[in-house]
Amino acid sequence: MTNDVLILAIESSCDETSVSVIKNGTDIVSNEVLSQIDSHKRFGGVVPEVASRHHVEGITTTIDAALENAALTMEDITAVAVTEGPGLIGALLVGINAAKALAYAYDKPLIPVHHIAGHIYANHLERPLTFPLMALIVSGGHTELIHMKDHLDFEVIGETRDDAVGEAYDKVARTIGLSYPGGPQVDQLAAEGKDVYDFPRVWLEKDSYDFSFSGLKSAVINKLHNLRQKNEEIEPANVATSFQNSVVEVLVGKAVQACKDYDVNQLIVAGGVASNKGLRQALNDACDEAGITLSIPNPKLCTDNAAMIGAVAYYLYQAGVTADMTLNGNSGMDIEMMNQ
Ligand code: KG4
Ligand code: ZN
């Protein structure tokens, strides 16, 4: 008998069915990720009903695989954690129902987790979070700056007023003819082009930590439209570089400014867009210059996975946070609801 806390975590908020076993909040014992991207490609984006059906098909085998690869059974597990929100409601409910069934059948505590808290704690699986810190969240659904003074203490100081950064990447990708999800392909193209279009940098009011990407997205679409009307040649790599430079300059500028204003030494970056090579490089350079310690997870832990949910759940377990069998999905869940 050991005192290890073994958490079986489930994530199903969007288009990945993932189940993981995490030991003591930091050790990944197993992490299974079943991606549905190929099914959604032909629609150019995630179709919620298709996502729910795939989760239903994949959840049981993914749970079995996570336990088998960990060489554990449900009897060995301390608690079951699951993403409560935000996300697609039908998709969330598949993971939540599976988690409730396991918790009930094996008499284990059930721990509800916020998806973005998970993205932040993906960093903790590689190196400890050191407080106070600033977290820059850049995903398909969220763009936020979150100040944390301690574990499970989230203060949103800025957020997007319209599109999320990943959403802008995917829309720009579509306009230059790339398939879903376009973010990684724009990233690749951006390394090959030149910033010839000089798209706007949207800083908003002085001192605001908020973001806005819809104007930039429209600027890109209008530029392409104009060029096409004039029958001028469009070089997709130049569009990608010009767009990415605009996004990266604002993200890095606001994140570094927030670190200085809040006097924090660690900047952590989280969410799918954190795997963007141009962003990683620019953050590295800016943090080096400003004397800020930067933490960005391995790209595999930047996109949706259950390991990150298990990492947060460890601290919720220590704080005694559990849910009962009435737990429901919360598609618009606020991260500050997690504060302890
Ligand atoms: O965090 P995530 O896996 O899912 C959400 O919770 O939203 O983020 C997915 C988003 C997609 O919009 C995808 O295009 C974008 O992250 N993404 C990237 C890159 N890799 C993924 N965007 C830009 N560059 C990348 N390398
Ligand atoms: Zn995510």
UniProtKB/TrEMBL annotation:
Residues 28-310 form the Gcp-like domain. InterPro entries: ATPase_NBD, Gcp-like_dom, KAE1/TsaD, Peptidase_M22_CS, TsaD. It comes from the Bacteria. Pfam families: TsaD (PF00814). Its main location: cytoplasm. It catalyses: L-threonylcarbamoyladenylate + adenosine(37) in tRNA = N(6)-L-threonylcarbamoyladenosine(37) in tRNA + AMP + H(+). Its EC number is 2.3.1.234. Its cofactor is Fe(2+). It is found in: Cytoplasm. Fe cation binds at H115, H119, D304. Substrate binds at I137, V138, S139, G140, G141, D170, G183, D187, N276. Keywords: Acyltransferase, Cytoplasm, Iron, Metal-binding, Transferase, tRNA processing. SUPFAM superfamilies: Actin-like ATPase domain. The keyword Disulfide bond does not apply. It is an enzyme of class 2 (transferase). Binds 1 Fe(2+) ion per subunit. NCBIfam families: gcp_kae1, T6A_TsaD_YgjD. Belongs to the KAE1 / TsaD family. Required for the formation of a threonylcarbamoyl group on adenosine at position 37 (t(6)A37) in tRNAs that read codons beginning with adenine. Is involved in the transfer of the threonylcarbamoyl moiety of threonylcarbamoyl-AMP (TC-AMP) to the N6 group of A37, together with TsaE and TsaB. TsaD likely plays a direct catalytic role in this reaction. PANTHER family: TRNA N6-ADENOSINE THREONYLCARBAMOYLTRANSFERASE, TRNA N6-ADENOSINE THREONYLCARBAMOYLTRANSFERASE, MITOCHONDRIAL. This is tRNA N6-adenosine threonylcarbamoyltransferase.
